[in-house]
Structures are given as C-alpha cells and as structure tokens.
Amino acid sequence: MRSKIKSIDELSKTVANLKAKGKVVVHCHGVFDLMHPGHIKHFEAAKAQGDTLVVTVTPDKYVNKGPNRPVFNEHLRVESIASLQVVDYVAVNQWPTADETIRRLKPDVYAKGSDYAAPETDITGGIYHEKDAVEQVGGRIHFTDEVTFSSTELINRFFGIYPDETNAFLEGFRSRYSSDLIIERLKSLRDLKVLVIGDAIIDEYHYCRAMGKSPKESIISTKFVGEESFPGGILACANHAAGFCGKVHLLTCLGSVDTKEEYIRERMKPNVDLKLFYRNDTCTVRKRRFVDPDFLGKMFEVSFLDEHPLPKSVSSEVCAYLESVLPEYDLVMVGDFGHHFINQEIINLLAEKSKFLALNTQTNSANIGYNYITKYPRADYICIDEPEIRLATQNKFKDVKELIKEVADRVKTDRVSITRGHKGVVTFDRNMDSFFEAPVFSKKVVDRVGAGDAFLSVTAPMVAAGCPMEMVGFVGNAVGALAVGIVCNRSSIEPVPLYKFITALLK
C-alpha cells in the first residue's frame, strides 16, 4: 500500500513513464473525507476508462467545508484510498484546486461524478477550470454515472461533529430552508449599492515568545518572532461586503500624520471605491497587539489614536459629502468603533437621510461608557454583541430578548441581531414580533478579532434585501464560524467557502 502513495512530483514522473509505455491514465480528484460505496463505484467506473487510476486528495488546509472539517486528516484519507485495489497511485495535492495538478500530471482522462455533469450547479465554478486544464494537456473529461452518496451528509448524521443542540437545530432548519435557496439569496446581493462608513483601523500583531521574568525588574521579558498587519475596523467590513455586493463605497477618515493610505489602498478589494477625509491633528488609528505565536494569546496592546473630537472643519466636509451621496445607496452600513470619526452631527444626518441604515457600535478600552448604540436616533438594522446591549441598557441580568425590545424601541428599529459568542445568536423581527435563535457552528476558535465585523458585513446586505431574520441568523453564524478560523483580518469571508459551508451544514 505504501508504494502507491506518492508526492505530486513523484506522481508526475510516474504518469509520464506510464504514458510513454502507451498506458491510458485516468485521474480522479476530491476531498474524500469519508470513504463510502459511492467513492468506490466512482473509482471503478473511472478505471474502466483507461489502464491506470491515479487519485489526488485536497490537503487539509484547503478543505472548504466549514469548521470541523475534514473529519479525517489528509494522511488517513490518502491511506484509505491507497488500500483500494482499484486505485494504482494516490497523492496529496499541493494547491486549493485540481487545475495545476492536472497540468502537472497530464492525464488522458479526468473523471468526475455525475453531480458535476451540469456545470451550472457547481457553486464553486471549478468544473469549468478543470475541464479547460485537462483539454489544454490533450485529455478529456468524463462523468461517471454510478450510485452516489454524500460524505457530508453521512458525517453530519453519524459522526457527531456538532453537539446535539446544533444537530437538532439544523434538522429543523433544513425542513424550512434549502442551501440552494439561501445561496440564491446571497448571490442576489450583487445588485445592492452599498455605502460603508466608519473608523479605519490598522491591526498589528507583533508575535513574541515569553522568555521569563527579568531578574532586575518585575516584568516578563519576551523574544520578538515576527510581525503582521491587517486592514481592520471599517476597512475589514468593506472587504467582507465587497465579496457579496458588486459595488462598495467606503467613506472613512485618516490621520495626516502617518496616514497609512498607500497600505490601505493596496489591501482593499478592486470593487471598493475609497472616499477619504483627513484630520491634521493625529495619525491613522493603529492597534498593536503583542501576541503569542503558538496559541495567538494576546499579551497586551498599544493603541495609536487621538481621543479628541473630529475637527469641525472635517465634520462639515463629511456632512456636505454625505448630503450629496446618501440618496444613491440601497444600504448604508456603519461600523462605529468609537474613535471619534462619527460624531453626533454625522449620526443625525445618517439617521435622517439613509434609505436603509445598518448599525454596529463597539465598546473598547478607549471608549467604554461613551459609545452605545442608543446614541443613534434611528436604524433599520442593529447588529451588536450581548455585552454591548447590556452596557447600553445598564442591565446585567435581564433576559436578552427583553433588552432587544427595549433597545429596538429606543433606536426605532425593526430588526436586530445580537451575537452571543459560544451561545450563538438571537435575531428579532418586530414586524413578525418574533425571535429566532441559532447555535454556534464551530468548535475551534483561532482568533475572535474581527468576527463581529464579518457578521455585520454579510448580514446587513441580507436584511436590506429583505431576507427573513431566521435566515439572517443562520448565515451570520456560518460567517462567524468561518471568521473565528482566520487570524485577525488576514483574509475576508468569501462567497464560495461560505456557500460550501452552508451546503455542508444543510446536507
């Protein structure tokens, strides 16, 4: 069995030798997270198209089926496939897709299951690229037509990757919504014209390892390992939204001292249109966190920011601009991080002139007690976490649903999402006088920084587009589950991984 397992480079040479001897080589590719009869029948049907069957497996880091997947690591998956008599060789792929692998191996036949025979139903669009790749190297694509099973459905039902509470929720939700319906609604968001406004933040991670207590001082000495920076705050929100909405207009304010403008422009998505204002009395906000690289534990933080109000001249410029453009947008999404860009003058204008206003306010060490959602006189959608709503209502213990109604009355809003960490999410629709609760979909948390921003950025367009709050809560939790698997804002939530996760959840 071990002799069947190759690296991609070794397999490329093996295939070349086989083809030189006149052998017809057939290639199959996939995740194969749970080997089942459908896979075996697929391999047998593929082998019948030639003389030698080679199989490549998606590596763990590129399995986009959501948190907790793959259930079986790449080594176990490769060994399981190699144990099958019908398979001649197997390798772990090096890339996210099979395209480059096909070009390296140059198979005569590339075999896919019958569920890919209708390319328009492939949510990734990958089958088009795979077909092009195999035809470029002189091969052909073949669709097997054998009995099919779903690894994801079998895993969901029998392998207990989610707690009982989550399984019970998903069972009920599947009876009301299909993955196709939800994905269709998400794809329809492309037509929305979105204005995103809020505080620009550069998140810096300085990775360092503790060496121990200094012998002369009462401090912990650390060794610098490396550093990384990310576009955070409203910059991250705009990038998340730009994956789902065709055109995003970002309005923010930078400091003229060390603006970081070039850095920001380089890291924004192509369909994000920037409108920047500047204040001369400060720098662009940076938050430097000192982080353990092994477990991403935050040791402490240094913030570079100014705590003085936005200069009157800049505020007037921003308001004049907003007056002229607000009527153009289907959705205005506010990420108010409380760093003195969005003042009461801007707040009042947004509340008065926005067609659809979605709000998020955040409390942090620099603004605690001064940045509650209740400073906004109106909104169409509020998305904050449970600590925020408890601070805004000055209540530690009352049921969160009572607090939601209280804040909804004060801010004159009809729809609310309250994220609750490991407790999931509660959404509210005043028009239906209904609450909806969804549990979390992830067991493993890599980094919580930015997860709330991702939740807002995908759910706000959904609410603006009229999606039911039950669907909004489900999708928001799926987004959150993906977001906590990303270090800070190293990457955005993208449509295809989200579609695949939703499909996996609802199998």
Report, as a whole number of angstroms, the end-to-end distance. 33 Å
CATH architecture of the largest domain: 3-Layer(aba) Sandwich
Spell out the CATH superfamily of the largest domain: Ribokinase
Count of discrete structural domains: 2
Placed side by side, the strands forming the largest sheet appear as 11-10-7-14-15-16-17-18-19
Uncertain segments: none
Structural class: alpha/beta
**Would you tell me the overall average pLDDT?**
91
Q: Which band does the percent of strand residues land in?
A: 25-35%
E-strand count = 19
CATH topology-level name of the largest domain: UDP-N-acetylmuramoyl-L-alanine:D-glutamate ligase
Q: What is the helix content?
A: 25-40%
CATH class (first level) name of the largest domain: Alpha Beta
Q: Quick one: biggest sheet?
A: 9 strands, mixed
Rg from C-alpha positions?
Answer: 26 Å
With helices defined by DSSP (H or I, 4 residues minimum), what is the helix count?
17
Large-scale geometry = globular
Account of the protein in words:
The two termini are 33 Å apart. This protein folds into 2 domains: 2-158, HUPs (Rossmann fold); 183-505, Ribokinase (UDP-N-acetylmuramoyl-L-alanine:D-glutamate ligase, 3-Layer(aba) Sandwich). It contains 17 helices and 19 strands. The longest helix has 15 residues, at 469-483. It is of the alpha/beta class. It has helices at residues 8-20, 37-47, 74-82, 99-105, 126-136, 151-158, 164-174, 179-187, 234-242, 261-267, 312-325, 344-353, 386-393, 400-411, 451-464, 469-483, 495-505, and strands at 5-6, 25-30, 52-57, 89-92, 109-112, 140-143, 193-198, 200-213, 220-233, 247-257, 272-283, 285-291, 298-304, 331-336, 357-361, 381-385, 415-419, 425-429, 434-438. The strands form 3 sheets. A 9-stranded mixed beta sheet has the order 11-10-7-14-15-16-17-18-19, with helices on both faces. A 6-stranded parallel beta sheet has the order 1-4-3-2-5-6, with helices on both faces. Helix content is 35%, strand content 25%. α9 (234-242) crosses α15. It is globular, with a radius of gyration of 26 Å.
